[in-house]
Amino acid sequence: MFKRSRSVMGFDDRWMLLLGIPLVSAIVVGLVFGDVLAEKGIGSLIYYYPGSLINTTIFWFIFRFLMLRCMQRWPRQEQIVQRVMIQIGLVLLTYVVVKWILKYTLNPLIQDMTGVEKPHSVKETLIVLLLIFLITTVYEAIRFYSLLQRSQTERAQLAKDNMQSQLEGLKNQVNPHFLFNSLNTLAHLIPENTLRAEAFVKRISEVYRYILEIRDEPLIPLEDELEFLQSYIHLIKERFGDNFQVEIKVAEVYRKYHIIPLALQILFENAIKHNEISTRHPLCIEVGVDEAGQLFVKNNLQRKKQEESSTGIGLKNIENRYRIITGKPVDVLVSTTSFVVFLPLIDIVSER
């Protein structure tokens, strides 16, 4: 119960229940029975406090339930005025109903046990309603602060993950193996085919330029990512030739959707890093959109006998950025013959 309410409120309110209910009960007794306590002494509090504690507990949990429902129905901060106004209406209506029910059920039992007749005055009603509105305000204030803290933490995590993805992208291009293979390929191309050599150098510059240009973008159009991917694929194919096969089938309607930057390049790099690529076992990667409207990257699974060490940062980075930016999961499906990653496509227009 508290775990679910924490996800809605943004904080764990058990401490408020444990401290707030006894404190508010004492405040109600002091304000409603103040004259009697002054006459009979503080010791008489033992007769008045139990009834107040029971009533406060009942009202607190009922109004807490209403508040949770309103927060679930109107969760966004820009809806706070609408949410609070509806809460006030529900509080007034519920207070009248519960007050009437308690008047003829629980309160007579409390009166018989304690010998204290509970007053039914306008003063008591105003005091209770004022405390309810005060408690609601405290809940909303703490929720606002908690969500603000969470938002700042997520923005910091997002900035970290974006930076990590850029570093991963750059690292994949500048690591010794990649540089050695790229320069070796270029060295063979220059005497054999200067035009292909020039195209190869151009593709390398396009890869670097793209990574630097999108460094501050949380989301980019899929068509831009696919265009960048072509430059990256060109570099890889110069190295592996027909042993590296790519099939991209993405309808034009989906190319206007957005994804997180460098997601496709990171997934391609992971596939190249962990799978054997040879004439007998070519690596085949397919990029498309499934029936559910998710972008998928699928490769045949043929793990290397001696895999390179992996930090697992790449895929985890993609999952974290999708979770923070969109709240949507990245699904992974692994079978004996294939490895598939499903990336949600973001329609920025409809999301707004």
Q: Which short descriptors sum up this protein?
A:
352 residues; alpha+beta; five-stranded mixed sheet; two-stranded antiparallel ribbon; 13 helices; 7 strands; 67% helix; 10% strand
Report on this structure:
This protein has a 5-stranded mixed β-sheet, with helices on one face. A two-stranded antiparallel sheet has the order 1-3. Helix 4 (45-73) packs antiparallel against helix 5. The protein has helices at residues 2-9, 14-32, 34-40, 45-73, 80-104, 106-114, 122-174, 176-192, 194-213, 222-240, 263-274, 313-326, 348-351; strands at 220-221, 244-249, 258-259, 283-289, 294-300, 331-334, 338-344. It is an alpha+beta fold.
Query: Which sheet architecture does the biggest sheet show?
Result: 5 strands, mixed
Main-sheet strand order equals: 2-4-5-7-6
Beta content comes to 5-15%
Number of strands: 7
Low-confidence stretches: 173-177
Helix percent reads 55-70%
Q: Judging from the principal axes of the Cα atoms, what is the shape?
A: rod-shaped
Span from first to last CA? Answer: 32 Å
Determine the structural class based on helices, strands and strand pairing. Answer: alpha+beta
Mean pLDDT: 80
Order of helices and strands: HHHHHHHHHEHEEHEEHEEH
Number of helices: 13
Radius of gyration: 32 Å
Task: Kindly summarize this structure in a few lines.
With 352 residues, this protein is of the alpha+beta class.
List the helices and strands and how they pair.
Blueprint: H1 2-9, H2 14-32, H3 34-40, H4 45-73, H5 80-104, H6 106-114, H7 122-174, H8 176-192, H9 194-213, E1 220-221, H10 222-240, E2 244-249, E3 258-259, H11 263-274, E4 283-289, E5 294-300, H12 313-326, E6 331-334, E7 338-344, H13 348-351
Parallel strand pairs: 2-4
Antiparallel strand pairs: 1-3, 4-5, 5-7, 6-7
Helix pairs in contact: 2-4, 2-7, 4-5, 4-6, 7-11, 7-12, 8-9, 9-10
